[in-house]
Amino acid sequence: MPSFLLDGRFFARFRDDDSVLVLQLGTIAERDVLMDLDPRAFFFTEHYRNYPAVLIRLAEVPKPLLVDVVKEARRQVGEKRK
Predict the structure, then answer these.
(1) Cα angle at 42 between 29 and 2, to 5 degrees?
(2) Where do the structural domains in the chain lie, given as residue ranges?
(3) Can you give the pLDDT at residue 7?
(4) Which of 4, 17, 9, 8 minimizes the C-alpha distance to 70?
(5) pLDDT digits over 6-53, tens only?
(6) How many C-beta atoms surround the C-beta of residue 59 within 10 A?
(7) What are the distances in angstroms from CA 33 to CA 37, 47, 82?
(8) What is the pLDDT of residue 17?
């Protein structure tokens, strides 16, 4: 699957035939907040347990929330890389 890069580093990629987006976050705590907010849309697998990323079911997440989450992740991940 193709990946989206931020300053040449992994930021996001599609998973499961484009139905799930893997999105890198600033911290694992952010993932926990998102999962509490909407557990149908946001989740993780064992593979990502110790990695600051969240999996997003694109059919479940409201578009405005998805836009906000991606923008915030881009801001925070971009700041960590400077």
Answers:
(1) 100
(2) 3-80
(3) 85
(4) 4
(5) 888 889 999 978 899 999 999 999 999 999 999 999 999 999 999 999
(6) 9
(7) 6, 19, 25
(8) 80
Two tokens, residue 13: 């990629």
Could you tell me the two tokens for 61? 């997440």
Q: Report the length, in residues, of the chain.
A: 82
Spell out the SS3 assignment of the chain.
Answer: CCEEEECCEEEEEEECCCCEEEEECCCHHHHHHHHHHCCCCEECCHHHCCCCEEEEECCCCCHHHHHHHHHHHHHHHHHHCC
55 token code pair = 């999996």
Residue 26 structure tokens: 């600033």
Q: What is the pLDDT of residue 2?
A: 79
